[in-house]
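Q: What residues go here?
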């Protein structure tokens, strides 16, 4: 099965080059971001592994305004934040 919808001859959708160009730029940008996310995950795992090797829960690096703290959190819990939708109240 193809991802592209087929069209009846003479009924093809109108091409809007401006939208095509923007959509292609978006896809390239998204793909770069996704690659960076993969790289970030791998580097975060390496940091975690090195922290465990050195039996550290936290590590401070840098000086002044560039100072950072690296910490390993014991919990793997995830936090989700959603918009609160109040329950419906029956007027009966």
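A:
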């Amino acid at each position: 099965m193809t991802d592209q919808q087929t069209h009846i001859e003479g009924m093809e959708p109108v091409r809007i080059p401006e939208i095509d160009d923007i959509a292609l730029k978006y896809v390239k940008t998204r793909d770069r971001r996704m690659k960076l996310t993969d790289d970030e995950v791998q580097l975060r795992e390496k940091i975690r592994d090195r922290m465990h090797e050195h039996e550290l829960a936290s590590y401070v690096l840098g000086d002044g305004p560039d100072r950072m703290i690296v910490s390993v959190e014991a919990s793997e819990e995830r936090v989700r934040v959603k918009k609160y939708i109040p329950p419906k109240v029956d007027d009966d």
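A: Context that may help when evaluating the design: Residues 17-71 form one domain. Strands lie at 58-61, 68-71.
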